[in-house]
Amino acid sequence: MLALLFGTMIFGSIVLLAQLVGAPQGPGSVYERATRGWASWLLRAAGVRVVVHGGEHLVVGAPRVFIANHVSWFDIPAMIYSLPHYGFVAKRELANIPLFGAAARAVGVIYIDRENHKAAFSAYEDAAARIRDGRAVLVYPEGTRGDGYALRPFKKGPFVLAVSSSAPIVPVVIHGTIEVNPRGSFKATPGVVHVHMLEPIITEGLTYADREVLAERVRHRMADLLRTQYGVEPALQRRSVPTGAASAPGVTV
After folding, report:
1. Which long-range CB contacts under 8 A does 188-192 form with residues at least 24 apart?
2. Taking 60 as the threshold, does the pLDDT of residue 142 lie above it?
3. CB–CB of 151/219 below 8 Å?
4. Can you tell me the distance from the alpha carbon of 9 to that of 38, in angstroms, rounded to the nearest whole number?
5. What is the number of H-type helices and E-type strands within the chain?
6. How far is CA 206 from CA 54, 153, 165, 200, in A?
7. Rounded to whole angstroms, how far apart are CA atoms 74 and 91?
8. What is the CATH number of the domain that holds 227?
9. 200 pLDDT higher than 90
10. Is residue 10 domain-resident?
11. pTM of this prediction?
């Protein structure tokens, strides 16, 4: 907690000062260095080592939508440490945290109001515009943290975002963060976190009608890795496929 407090004060202040003086955004910018510094600070304080698999799927400066599972607060520093320059979509409540909320917005966080569907889709439109400009965005499609690694139903917004921006989706599986910091606990235990970057899924040519099939394809790919690598058997539920969606280009179930 002390590391979180002081790390946020130090690195958050650097980010806000950079914004105040008009420092430019971009790969290698002060914003990216400060954000990664904050993540590394917390990981070291907790004794957590992050191992990245599939790093060849990380392309700096290329539009991407990273879709990751979410089981622990430590998913955030683990992903910041693992990914190149990117922004991420986060729940609006985080914007109210003193200093952290403002600093996160300055480095590219897009806050979403999950209770207001109109505002949520407006936030996704903002994210899509950034992606079309060459940015990468991270989204947790389950919406909130879970108690176990079994995948929960995915919300459709992230896949509408990917389709509207025509950006490839990179499925990401995080494993090990529950052992480090389970949901509802303020205790951090030293450990190893594995971040698996899976092969990108092309969305170019897809439409809004393909969002459910696309979500299931991504979910199946993530579930397969959880099952083969860690023995996790998620309760997968087949959803009805909209008429004609199965024949959409690049989408299979």
Report:
1. 188/45, 188/46, 188/47, 188/48, 188/74, 189/46, 189/47, 190/46, 190/47, 190/48, 191/47, 191/48, 191/49, 192/48, 192/49, 192/50, 192/51
2. yes
3. yes
4. 10
5. 8, 7
6. 25, 21, 10, 15
7. 16
8. 3.40.1130.10
9. yes
10. no
11. 0.83
Whether residue 119 is contained in a domain is answered as yes
| pLDDT average, residue stretch 145-173 | 90
Dihedral sign for Cα 201, 155, 177, 49, please.
positive
Contact yes or no for 154/212 (Cβ under 8 A): no
**Regarding beta strands 169-175 and 191-197, do their DSSP bridges make them parallel or antiparallel, or are they unpaired?**
antiparallel
Q: How many whole angstroms separate alpha carbon 239 and alpha carbon 219?
A: 12
Please give the Cα distance from 218 to 140 (Å, whole number): 12
Could you report the per-residue pLDDT of 43-56, keeping only the tens digit for each?
A: 999 999 999 999 88
Residue 107 lies in a domain: yes
Task: Give the mean model confidence (pLDDT) for residues 124-138.
Answer: 76
Domain containing 183: what range? 49-247
The reply to whether 181 falls in a domain is: yes
Comparison of pLDDT for 224 and 250, the residue scoring more: 224
Q: For the chain, how far is it from start to end, CA to CA, in angstroms? A: 43
The pLDDT of residue 88 is: 67
Contacts of 133 (CB under 8 A, 6+ apart): 63
- The candidate with the shortest Cα–Cα distance to 32, out of 106, 94, 107, 82, is 107
Number of domains in the chain: 1
- Residue 246 confidence (pLDDT): 37
For the chain, what's the residue count?
Answer: 253
Cα separation, 199 vs 173, whole angstroms: 12
